Amino acid sequence: MKIDVVTIFPGYFDALELSLLGKAKTRGLIDVQVHDLRDSARDKHRTVDDTPSGGGAGMVMKPEPWGAALDGILSAADGSDHDPLIIFPSPAGDVFTQRMARELATESHLVFGCGRYEGIDQRVFDEYAERGRVRLVSIGDYVLNGGEVASIAMIEAIARLIPGVVGNPESLVEESHEDGLLEYPSYTKPAEWRDRAVPPVLLSGNHAAIESWRREQSIERTRRVRPELLPAELGGERRGRHAAP
Ligand code: 6GU
């Protein structure tokens, strides 16, 4: 998967060199290219923002540097058989979920456009939505200073679903959200720590009993913490195992 990122803070994306994602980059499973938006500004101060039309607080990102940066990325991709999807992280977007991560993991080229300040001039979204595929995506109901941290979260969630990125694919299956439920609690050795015992069933060697204990724990945890995720057949409001909440 090819991933381009446009940002005024390329340094944020140094985090992608670490751990599994760094290994995935080295092994060629993902190819991440980070572009400094200021390199696409034309004045000597490398200006990327201006005051809002109509007045108001804060600054808005100017369209021209975005146009130059995105045109450059799209023309480099032109003629390849990879149809890019541009994602603008935005608190006004569709909420990012595990389901969306699974969908996006099947794409061959993602472009993340990280806005700062009060946002990007609307004409940038309109221009690229007319020329190709654009999505506004939020990572939750709270406000960040810009799209960088949101992009890193999305890139990590997406990239780990690409075959080969996570060493043991079975570990992907048993996690929170993959079956629509929260994950069961995990334990390791020692069997007793500070008078706290590992639940005996986990040491029983009875695999059917362990599996049913874990499922019960998942359901109870989901009922307690995120009842809105619970499927109807488990007494919840959710319309089916993979229906949207
Ligand atoms: Cl994607 N961007 C910003 N700036 N804030 C957010 C967000 C995105 N998702 C939640 N809050």
From TrEMBL:
S-adenosyl-L-methionine binds at G115, I139, G140, D141, Y142, V143, L144. It catalyses: guanosine(37) in tRNA + S-adenosyl-L-methionine = N(1)-methylguanosine(37) in tRNA + S-adenosyl-L-homocysteine + H(+). Pfam families: tRNA_m1G_MT. Its EC number is 2.1.1.228. Residues 41-60, 225-245 are annotated as: Disordered. SUPFAM superfamilies: alpha/beta knot. It is found in: Cytoplasm. One of its GO terms (biological process) is methylation. Residues 1-230 form the tRNA methyltransferase TRMD/TRM10-type domain. Keywords: Cytoplasm, Methyltransferase, S-adenosyl-L-methionine, Transferase, tRNA processing. Homodimer. NCBIfam families: PRK00026.1, trmD. Specifically methylates guanosine-37 in various tRNAs. This is tRNA (guanine-N(1)-)-methyltransferase. It comes from Leucobacter rhizosphaerae. The gene is trmD.
